[in-house]
Design brief:
The protein is mainly α. Helix content is 76%, strand content 1%. The chain contains 12 helices and 2 strands. The protein has a two-stranded antiparallel ribbon with strand order 1-2. The protein is globular and about 45 Å long. The two termini are 24 Å apart.
């Protein structure tokens, strides 16, 4: 009985733990990008992750994708979930977009995912869940909208290149979530993630080789940030995301991303003494309420069978 209780407690805690870990990625980008260019930074991060994850997958699992077709699907999902998402976010912040605004734009993912999950995956959302998605969007806007000064202009300090990079990240994480749910349901968790990083490290390596000088300042701050991003983000949080996608509907998993901007705002307040105005606090409450509506709803699936 205690073992069953512990298992259920872990399953219940997985979404919250994922949100907390995932939100630190924006903080890590802010800490690390002054010391390395984005593709170079991400290539080192991905290579270190691969070096740690590959032997772990061999020792703990030993199971690899069953055929070349599945290998291809997993590689594509990795290019979207890791390559496009991380590359877009880091490059957008590198070009001057505030980390908070980047988080807000990527936070639009649940609406985009919910709109596409129906025709692509056969998922149907209830009216209650659509209300939750809309509440989440309003909450995210309130959290970070209070930190933008309309008098300074929304795009103050960055150009269309930064905006385009973050939009690529939004499309990448959305498409990757849907693609993996549809084509990679038979993916072994550990070895499948290794295949994803094999594709991703190749992409970032080409980006660094073609577009950057590949110089790195190995300051203590950069080294500590890199270690956190590798061990906590690229391994722990990504494995949690893969497990959540495998267990639940894509739209429900995507709704968790609504909580990332509020949690990021809290971390920025703690680490950088950034103020949290009342509108941001209200937005956090609204975003959490929206996530609860989505996760607690009972979406009908066109091809669902009772077992």
């Amino acid at each position: 009985m205690p073992a069953i209780f512990s298992h259920r407690l872990w399953l219940a805690a997985m979404p919250l733990l994922f949100v907390v870990l995932w939100s630190t990625g924006f903080i890590g980008a802010k800490f690390g990008l002054p010391y390395a260019e984005p593709f170079t930074f991400l290539f080192i991060r991905s290579a270190l992750t691969l070096a740690l994850l590959a032997p772990l997958a061999h020792w703990l699992s030993g199971e690899w994708p069953r055929d070349s077709r599945l290998w291809g699907h997993i590689a594509v999902s990795g290019l979207l979930v890791h390559g496009a998402y991380l590359g877009g976010v880091f490059y957008g912040i590198y070009l001057g977009m505030p980390a908070g605004l980047a988080s807000l734009l990527v936070g639009l993912q649940p609406l985009l995912t919910a709109g596409l999950a129906g025709p692509l995956l056969g998922e149907r959302l209830t009216t209650r869940q659509w209300l939750g998605l809309m509440l989440g969007l309003v909450g995210v806007a309130l959290v970070l909208g209070g930190k933008l000064d309309p008098g300074e202009g929304l795009f103050q300090g960055f150009g269309l290149g930064a905006l385009g990079a973050v939009l690529v990240a939004l499309l990448g994480i959305t498409g990757g979530t849907l693609y993996q749910k549809r084509h990679c349901t038979g993916m072994p968790l550990l070895s499948g993630t290794v295949v994803q990083y094999l594709a991703t490290v190749t992409l970032f390596g080409l980006g660094a080789l073609l577009f950057e000088e590949r110089s790195v300042e190995w300051a203590p701050v950069f080294t500590l940030t890199l270690g956190w991003l590798v061990l906590v983000l690229s391994i722990s949080a990504i494995l949690l995301l893969m497990a959540l996608i495998k267990r639940g509907e894509a739209s429900r998993v995507a709704s968790l991303f609504y909580l990332v901007p509020p949690v990021t705002a809290l971390q920025a307040w703690w680490l950088f003494d950034e103020a949290l105005p009342p509108a941001s606090l209200a937005g956090m409450a609204i975003a959490i309420a929206g996530v609860v509506l989505v996760v607690k709803g009972q979406p009908a699936r066109a091809d669902r069978r009772r077992t």
